[in-house]
Specification:
single chain; alpha/beta; Quinone Oxidoreductase, Chain A, domain 1; Rossmann fold; 7-stranded mixed beta sheet; 10 helices; 17 strands; binds zinc ion
């Protein structure tokens, strides 16, 4: 099969022929319909993210059709040809996190496309049918980004809901591939005012189309004062940082109100000092790590209801290097999906 492989950190992907995987006992082979091009793959491809052995096929936002079952995987509610999305957090299946429904928190850290081979290819080997959810009528090309670009902000926003009472505000930093979904989940699930902070004018406009109450350019003079003004007199109840560099984390912690919750989602590796007087009293800082299989089912239900808008650009897999170049320069509006 054709696959886009990374052979050297910092180099381009190489499109090449590799053996098509054969599913072993319990495994399922998926024919890829589309794989979302995620910003975190930029960090892996550059070598910033440790622990990936090369050569490797990246791609952890996958959807497609069931191609073949390994021994014992048939008869578990799926048929050959079914359109499915792939839940990417492949846990051990028997630790307390896995049994609690949070396989993405499993210590084995087997994420398809970040260790096991991923979906920038014609086929994807999935270790178990439990990682597959029927799209239920959604086009699998358009559904692929739901498995990360939508699932990750969904899980992050759910953590913030107890803080988002009427009259309070949420500040969302970074309205790219994940942030565009984050805005929608905040508006769908909470009564809070949504203040988007984004330097790209096209992404600010998209965020407002998707329901943001206000969108502010952080590079503007007085941006901090403007964000504080829009957040209300008690400060932001919630900050969601989808970028995660030093400057966004500093800005986010500066606008966070008393007892507020800062949720870090962006993997850019930034940090912010944590001290008693450096933050508002009883402010809380946490990260949000992807989402669970059950939360993916909830995201699919929202997508099927028609309430969730996906802004997607499709590209052939052969253009993967151009796509990642554009992604690195912030030139993708919404999500890019690679189609083999
Ligand atoms: Zn991702
Ligand atoms: Zn586990």
């Amino acid at each position: 099969m054709k696959a886009a492989r990374l052979h050297t950190f910092g180099a381009e992907f190489v499109i090449e022929e590799v053996p098509t995987p054969v599913p072993g006992p319990g495994q399922v082979l998926i024919r890829i319909a589309g794989a979302g091009a995620c910003h975190s793959d930029l960090h892996i491809a550059s070598g910033e993210t440790q622990g990936i052995a090369l050569p490797h096929t990246l791609g952890h936002e996958n959807a497609g059709w069931v191609e073949t079952f390994g021994h014992g995987a048939e008869g578990q509610g799926l048929e050959v040809g079914d359109a499915v999305v792939v839940f990417g957090g492949w846990g051990c299946g028997h630790c307390s996190f896995c049994l609690g429904g949070k396989e993405q928190m499993c210590d084995t850290f087997l994420w398809g496309g970040m260790g096991p081979e991923g979906g920038y290819a014609e086929y994807l080997l999935v270790p178990s049918t439990r990682h597959l959810l029927p799209t239920g009528g959604l086009d699998p090309v358009l559904a692929a980004p739901l498995t990360d670009a939508a699932l990750t902000p969904y899980a992050a926003v759910k953590k913030t809901l107890p803080h988002l009472t009427a009259g309070r505000s949420a500040v969302l930093i970074g309205a790219g591939g994940l942030g565009q979904y984050g805005v929608q989940f905040l508006k769908l699930l909470s009564p809070a005012k949504v203040v988007v902070v984004e330097s790209d004018p096209g992404k600010r406009a998209l965020a407002q189309t998707l329901g943001a109450d206000v969108a502010i350019d952080p590079l503007r003079e007085n941006a901090l004062a403007e964000i504080q003004e829009e957040s209300g007199k008690n400060g932001a109840a919630v900050v969601l940082d989808f970028v995660g560099v030093d400057s966004t984390m500093t800005l986010g912690s500066a606008v966070l109100g008393r007892g507020g919750l800062f949720v870090l989602v962006g993997l850019a590796g930034g940090s912010v000092p944590f001290s008693f007087l450096g933050l508002a009293p009883e402010a809380m800082l946490t990260s949000s790590n992807w989402g669970s299989r059950n939360e993916l089912a909830e995201v699919l239900a929202l997508a099927r209801s028609g309430d969730l808008v996906s802004t997607i650009e499709q590209f052939p897999l052969s253009e993967i290097n151009e796509v990642f170049d554009r992604l690195g320069r912030g030139r993708i509006n919404g999500r890019a999906v690679l189609v083999p």
